[in-house]
Amino acid sequence: MSTPDIRAVCASALAPVLDGKGSLNALDSTLESAGIEGRDRGLAKALCFGVCRTLPRLEALAKLLLRQSFKRRDQDVQALLLLGLYQLLYMRVPAHAAVGETAGAARALGKGWATRVLNGCLRRFQRDTQALQEQVDRDPSIALLHLEWMLTRWREAWPDDWRELAEANNQPGPMTLRVNRRHSDRETYLARLRDAGLAADPTPYAADGVTLHEACDVRALPGFEEGAVSVQDEAAQLTAPLLEAALATTPGARVLDACSAPGGKTAHLLEAFDLELTALDSDAERLGRVDATLTRLGLEATTLAADASRLDWWDGQAFDAVLLDAPCSGTGVIRRHPDIKRLRRPRDIRELAALQARLLDTLWKTLAPGGTLLYATCSVMPEENMDQITAFLARTPDASADELDVDWGRPAGAGRQLLPRIEGHDGFFYARLQKAAV
């Protein structure tokens, strides 16, 4: 069996992203199908995610280097050029390998004609790198590696923090773990990590959280397969504490996790409380990940593939609490999903806000009088967060918002907003709503 060309495989994976018709969500399965394993897989993922993370700057440089753009059917060749530039700018790959092996990968794509073009562009970039970089970096959006419309929205919403927000998005997020309190406490697990040679610190806000100094394969984590720990960002771990008042004193409470996949918050709730939980998701394939997570952790819930914006799945028995981790723009987790920089459009925010409003209105009907609905997004857009909740409260007479007495985030209307932090938590929004008792 011939050895797969890593750069050619990466180019094929990136081409749909560049065309606006795909994402990196299936990258692991793509690499597995191509037979890329071990350290090569790590390199391939670093290349693909790195290109997406720095895409605005790479594309601006590519435009200066090309006499004319590649045709749409040659997005894979465009991806090779971006991969070459990324290696020269941001990786420790030897320059001769970054140029020669990247240009040569065109042959593995069946496009040998592009080898000379790629070789010429990359060598010119080596010669004129300082002048070319200075030229593209005159545009602030390129220097900050984000689309202009995103930066404009953030300047308006977060005038004192927008630049730091963008810079946090441009760094890979840390690997944060959630200790399963049904197995042990955080201090005990930190000791297990030290014994395994893995340095880590407790998270400042999430009581079950641990952040590794360096990311590792989950198979290296003590007790992972036995359910002792899960990978989950600190911001996402704040869900369970926000529902503690509603659930801790009500054993067997009926809870709905309305948009549950991939299951991290579902599992955390079950680890923390004695619940009768229904995990709902509209994507049956993603719901399978919830089942797999629960199986590994030894937890039980009812999983149901259904559209939470409709009620044809509901048996009419009210829930004591509802978690709505709503579909959103993902602008708070761009560092973990950098293809968002290419795939997200301004119109998406309006469309997502409309969907979130439908979900709120529909799921409110399933909540028992006196019950709690926790609204969450991994967005930093006010339209999806504080504006969404303000509008919901205005049209829903039996709804009120709790003031969140917490030491994280900042006030944002009736909720709290976390912005992404370098080496810290992701961007997230939470609002806790109460339904009037009868």
From TrEMBL:
<feature type="active site" description="Nucleophile">
    <location>
        <position position="378"/>
    </location>
</feature>
<comment type="function">
    <text>Specifically methylates the cytosine at position 967 (m5C967) of 16S rRNA.</text>
</comment>
<keyword id="KW-0963">Cytoplasm</keyword>
<dbReference type="InterPro" id="IPR029063">
    <property type="entry name" value="SAM-dependent_MTases_sf"/>
</dbReference>
<dbReference type="GO" id="GO:0008168">
    <property type="term" value="F:methyltransferase activity"/>
</dbReference>
<dbReference type="InterPro" id="IPR006027">
    <property type="entry name" value="NusB_RsmB_TIM44"/>
</dbReference>
<dbReference type="InterPro" id="IPR035926">
    <property type="entry name" value="NusB-like_sf"/>
</dbReference>
<feature type="domain" description="SAM-dependent MTase RsmB/NOP-type">
    <location>
        <begin position="165"/>
        <end position="436"/>
    </location>
</feature>
<feature type="binding site">
    <location>
        <position position="325"/>
    </location>
    <ligand>
        <name>S-adenosyl-L-methionine</name>
    </ligand>
</feature>
<dbReference type="InterPro" id="IPR049560">
    <property type="entry name" value="MeTrfase_RsmB-F_NOP2_cat"/>
</dbReference>
<dbReference type="InterPro" id="IPR018314">
    <property type="entry name" value="RsmB/NOL1/NOP2-like_CS"/>
</dbReference>
<protein>
    <recommendedName>
        <fullName>16S rRNA (cytosine(967)-C(5))-methyltransferase</fullName>
        <ecNumber>2.1.1.176</ecNumber>
    </recommendedName>
</protein>
<feature type="binding site">
    <location>
        <position position="307"/>
    </location>
    <ligand>
        <name>S-adenosyl-L-methionine</name>
    </ligand>
</feature>
<dbReference type="InterPro" id="IPR001678">
    <property type="entry name" value="MeTrfase_RsmB-F_NOP2_dom"/>
</dbReference>
<keyword id="KW-0808">Transferase</keyword>
<dbReference type="InterPro" id="IPR023267">
    <property type="entry name" value="RCMT"/>
</dbReference>
<keyword id="KW-0489">Methyltransferase</keyword>
<keyword id="KW-0694">RNA-binding</keyword>
<dbReference type="Pfam" id="PF01189">
    <property type="entry name" value="Methyltr_RsmB-F"/>
</dbReference>
<feature type="binding site">
    <location>
        <position position="281"/>
    </location>
    <ligand>
        <name>S-adenosyl-L-methionine</name>
    </ligand>
</feature>
<comment type="similarity">
    <text>Belongs to the class I-like SAM-binding methyltransferase superfamily. RsmB/NOP family.</text>
</comment>
<dbReference type="Pfam" id="PF22458">
    <property type="entry name" value="RsmF-B_ferredox"/>
</dbReference>
<dbReference type="InterPro" id="IPR054728">
    <property type="entry name" value="RsmB-like_ferredoxin"/>
</dbReference>
<dbReference type="GO" id="GO:0032259">
    <property type="term" value="P:methylation"/>
</dbReference>
<dbReference type="Pfam" id="PF01029">
    <property type="entry name" value="NusB"/>
</dbReference>
<dbReference type="InterPro" id="IPR004573">
    <property type="entry name" value="rRNA_ssu_MeTfrase_B"/>
</dbReference>
<feature type="binding site">
    <location>
        <begin position="259"/>
        <end position="265"/>
    </location>
    <ligand>
        <name>S-adenosyl-L-methionine</name>
    </ligand>
</feature>
<keyword id="KW-0698">rRNA processing</keyword>
<keyword id="KW-0949">S-adenosyl-L-methionine</keyword>
